[in-house]
Amino acid sequence: MKFTYRLEGLHCGNCGGKIEREISKIKEVESVSVIFMSQRLIINADEAHIDKIEDEARKIIKKIASDAVMSGR
Question: Which is it for strands 29-35 and 40-45: parallel, antiparallel or unpaired?
Answer without folding.
Answer: antiparallel
